[in-house]
Amino acid sequence: MQVSAGREMRMKSLLTNREREVFELLVQDRTTREIAESLFISEKTVRNHISNVMKKLNVKGRSQAVVELVRLGEIQI
Fold first, then answer.
1. pLDDT 10s digits, 44-67
2. Is 53 in contact with 64 (CB distance < 8 Å)?
3. Sorting pLDDT into bands at 50, 70 and 90, what band is 13?
4. pTM of the model
5. What are the boundaries of each domain within the chain?
């Protein structure tokens, strides 16, 4: 059975696993430092993941990114 291109795109996630982890912690009101410590990565890496997602979504802030990710069904709050 073939999967249509549109359906296949919906099945693929917009976020990488790490980006999802970062945003799931972000919506739990964690700071950049807390996220970094929790995931054993640097604060700079956390900021890079957030920035990358904002670019993917073409939004200007973390809150806009969260709203758009929720709307797209990528994360839940």
1. 999 999 999 999 999 999 999 999
2. no
3. confident
4. 0.83
5. 5-71
5 has pLDDT over 70 = no
Can you spell out the DSSP letters for 21-66? HHHHHHTTT--HHHHHHHHTS-HHHHHHHHHHHHHHHT-SSHHHHH
The answer as to CATH 1.10.10.10 being correct for domain 5-71 is: yes
Cβ contact 50:22 at 8 Å: yes
Question: Residue 10: how many CA atoms within 13 Å on its side-chain side?
Answer: 7
As a whole number of angstroms, the distance between CA 66 and CA 34 comes to 18
